[in-house]
Structures are given as C-alpha cells and as structure tokens.
What we know:
The chain has helices spanning about 20-25, 40-45, 50-65, 80-105, 185-195, 215-230, 320-335, 365-370, 385-390, 420, 425-430, 435-440, 450-455; strands at about 1-10, 30-35, 110-115, 115-125, 125-130, 135-145, 145-150, 165, 175-180, 200-205, 230-235, 240-245, 250-255, 260-265, 265-270, 275, 310, 350, 355-360, 375-380, 395-400, 410-415. The chain is an alpha/beta fold and about 450 residues long. The longest helix is centred in the first third of the chain and has 24 residues, at about 80-105.
Amino acid sequence: MSDAGHFDFLIIGGGQAGIPLAYGLAKAGKRVGLVEEKNLGGSCINFGCTPTKAAIASARLAYQARKAGEYGLNIPSVEVDFAAVLKRAKDILMQSRTSLDHGFERVDNPALIRGHAALDGKAGKRFAVKVGAARVTADQVVLDTGTRTAIPATPGLKRVDNIDSENWLEKTDLPDRLIMVGAGYIGLEMGQFYKRMGSQVTVIEGSGQIIGHEDLDVASAIQGFLESDGVEFRMNTRVKNVRPSRDGVVVLVDGLAGQSEIEGSHIFLATGRKPNTDKLGLDKVGVKLNQGGIVEVDKRLSTNVPGIWAAGDIRGGPMFTHTSWDDYRILMSQILGDGSRTTDRIIPYGVFVDPELGRVGMTEKEARATGAEVKVSTFEMSKNGKANEIGEPRGFIKVVADAATGKILGAAVLSVEGAELVHMYVDIMTAGAPFTAIRDAIHIHPTLAEAVQSAVSSM
Ligand SMILES: Cc1cc2nc3c(=O)[nH]c(=O)nc-3n(C[C@H](O)[C@H](O)[C@H](O)COP(=O)(O)OP(=O)(O)OC[C@H]3O[C@@H](n4cnc5c(N)ncnc54)[C@H](O)[C@@H]3O)c2cc1C
C-alpha cells in the first residue's frame, strides 16, 4: 500500500460541510486533504437541491402557461420536451460541479484525493485512512459522507427498474403513469413535478398524513394543492409487493379498504435516505453509531473519539444543505475559534411544492406540547393585495409565539415564495426579538412581505 502523505486534517466527503471546511482550515494554515469518491458537491448539487429546483422551475412555468387565460393571455398549447427539461437541470448542476472541480485544480492546499476513504485504525497518535490502494495519516478527521437512497426490502422491487432521488436525471422518458412511494418532501416535490410535466401520478403513503412532522392544517392544504394539480393520493396504504408487467409495474397495496393492485408505467421510491457510515471503517477506531447508522455527536459535532468530527446528514438532526453548511461554521468555531458556535440553532427549511412551504422553529403542535402559553395567529394569502394581483392567492401564514415574551416560536409560510418569505421570521427569531419588531416595521406596498406583517399584526 502506497503512502500518500500526512495531513493536519483529513475530510472524508466533498459535501456541503466538507468543501467550505477544507478551504477554511487551509486558509488558516492547516495542511488539509479532502477525499471524494464520486462528485464534488455531494447530494445537493449532483441530484438533490440544484437539479430538483431547476426541474421544478420548468414545471411551474408549464403550470403558469396553462393558466395564461386567467391573465388575459392566449397560449394555445404547452408542449413538454421532458428530455430537454432534464438537460437544463443537468446543465445547471454541471456549472456548479465544474466550478468546484476547477477550484481544487487551482490550489495545492486543500488537496483533493479521489477515491473511497475508510478509517484503518491508528498509526501512533495519528489516524490511518485507506483511500483505494493508498494510505494517508491525519491528526484529525472530519466525516461528511452524506446519505444514499434507502431501498425498502419490499418483495419484487429488485425486478423492476426503479426511479429514485439519485437516478431520476438519467430517466429521460416521461413516465406515463408514475407510482410515487412516499409522501415526504421529496415525494411531494417530485410528484408535483412529474404531474405538471404530463404524467399521471399516484402517491402511496403509509400514514394518514403527508409530511407527517407538520401541523395537520398545513399538510392538508398542501395535499389539496397537489390534488388540484391532479395528483392522486392513497393514504394509510402500504406497498406489499411489486412485480414487473408488460406495461411497466404492478404494485400490490394494503390500505384501509383491504388489498388492491395499482398499475403504473414507472415507480419512484421516495422512501427516505440512509447514512453512508457502513463502509467507513468506524469500528476500527471505535466511533459510536446509533441504530440507524447515524454518528453520535455532541453539540460541538465531536464524536466519542477525540479528533474525529462528523458533519452534515450523517450527524443526525435536520438533513438540509444549509444545516450541513452551518456545520462547517460550527467546526471552524470549535477547531480554530472560541467554540461558541454549536448545534443550538434555529433551523428553517423549505418544501418546494407550489405554493411553497417555508418553515422555521416549532409547529403549533410542538409549541403546545411544551406546556407554555402560546398565541397562534393565521393570515390567509387571499387577503394580501400582491398575492391577488399576481394571481397567487393560495395558502396562509401561521405564526406561533410565546404569550409571555412575544417571542416567535415557529412559523409556517404556505405561499408562493414561502421559502423566501419565512426568512423575516428566521431573522427575528435569531435576533431574539419579539413579534412586535415585524409588526411595527414598515413593509413596502404591494408586497407579499405585507402578509408576513399582517400575520403578526393581530397577535
Ligand atoms: C432529491 C433531493 C432534494 C433535496 N433538496 C434539498 C433542498 O431543496 N434543500 C436542502 O436544504 N436540502 C435538500 N436536500 C438534502 C441535501 O441534499 C442534503 O441535506 C445535503 O446535501 C447533505 O450534505 P452532506 O454534507 O451531509 O453530504 P453530501 O452532500 O451528500 O456529500 C457527501 C459526499 O461524501 C461522499 N462520500 C461518501 N462516502 C465516502 C467515502 N467513504 N469516501 C469518500 N467520499 C465519500 C459522497 O460521494 C458525497 O459526495 C435534497 C436531497 C435530495 C436527495
């Protein structure tokens, strides 16, 4: 085994935390190696956030073009070139991937090492890491290896050609009848995307509520929006088995009304993600995992082994690009700074269905469960001038605040541009200011931001 050198820090995984951390530590004078086995940018750039949001933009344009008549415009027909839609999404992701590749080509430190990395015990005080046929050593190691599609053990699944959140860009034939398994955020975003592209879409969900973590009023409204697009939902329904058919696939399901078969041309598995921690040699150094394979970390993102840190999706908690990126800031603070930045943080997220859901903090259900006295205020987007003027009056804003302090505990903005609008609440919460800070400000008329203010005005 060849010796590929020694690093102060070896980062395993070129994802959303790993890359900025590699540059940050190198800038501070540390000798840094970053190992990537596939493509720089990880899930977000290569098949997640970037291409899905690019594809969703095409779907939204098709949706708007189809309702052009409402705006007094005549667009006689909308034809979808599905392969071109996917190509556009791929071109956009390639710009980001290429820019990351070029960034590493231009510098010696951090050094990019291509290959699969696995810990291989200790060499004195240093950690030994195998990368393919080579071996490197490092004083400290950061794990940022992300997740992969979790394929359920459903009988027959391996006999059909599945679409999933990693391979969807390669499936350039538009599905005629798509069976979407799972109504989490990926299932909903992609389900609405395929429907607006022209597929018939049936979403199968084992529980009685889509995006189970959200309040029921929010989840029900989103289900209604997708149904108005023509997406069909089979709730409280479990997939028993799958078999190939002449036209595609037949899925046997068990629902409230007993067993039945659903026929489709294609099946999309949106059944969750699994941490890439099983082939990392963590047992060789004693890094603790929980039962789901998530790395156990403290608030500083340190594992139980001093000198080994974990960031991004594999460290448990919210799995988003912006949380992974914030992990880089936590690690910089812990490794080189005053250690004040930790995982005690306010985390927003978006569900990019149309209209979007922007969320931050607690749901109403969670806030009430704390036992604190809370105020809840909702505002319908149909009462907002701008929403009506642009023909987007669907949705509502819900804000939950602590009755005693007036501090916002959480907010749901279900509106066109909801994932943008929610940031006004995020910033107020981060500043520790009460809802009156938004209520007493002046917001421009006519804007959707007026609705953000209206939602707290009657609290
Ligand atoms: C379809 C989809 C849509 C999404 N949309 C959004 C969104 O809109 N907004 C959002 O915030 N989040 C979204 N996400 C989630 C987001 O992509 C992830 O939370 C984020 O990418 C996690 O970053 P990470 O740093 O943990 O890991 P990743 O970005 O997954 O990076 C991990 C990297 O490690 C590499 N690797 C793994 N094991 C090894 C090894 N042993 N050796 C070397 N390299 C290794 C992998 O190849 C990968 O490049 C989406 C995810 C999916 C699947």
